[in-house]
Write a structure and sequence with these properties.
Strand order of the largest sheet: 1-2-4-3
CATH superfamily: Transcriptional coactivator/pterin dehydratase
CATH class: Alpha Beta
Helix content: 25-40%
Oligomer: single chain
Structural class: alpha+beta
Strand content: 15-25%
Number of helices: 3
Number of strands: 4
Largest sheet: 4 strands, antiparallel
CATH architecture: 2-Layer Sandwich
Length: 115
Amino acid sequence: MNEELPVLYKRKCVPCSGLEPPLTGESLKPYMARLSSKWFLTENQRLTQTFKFKDFKAALAFTNAVGELAEAENHHPVIELTWGRVTVTLWTHKIHGLSENDFILAAKIERIGIA
């Protein structure tokens, strides 16, 4: 684990100018190491995790909590809600790939799932 990388859930998402290059290859590894192994990369461009719940009501409550967090961070994931399951997919649209913001939000979303 890269000890120089601050704890992600304590960070705040910062606006993306669109000029930053997306994180790829080796630069993704320290960020992935800070998340649970339930997150996975799709083509090194998107970060996804499916959260499971006992029923629709619990899944909806989680979806609403993720939505409130996304608004507070001004970084908005794709959220797919179905009975007992919520899939969250993150990427930074302006750079067509992953940025530090995606990992910050993922770490904060994990903490909602724990609560």
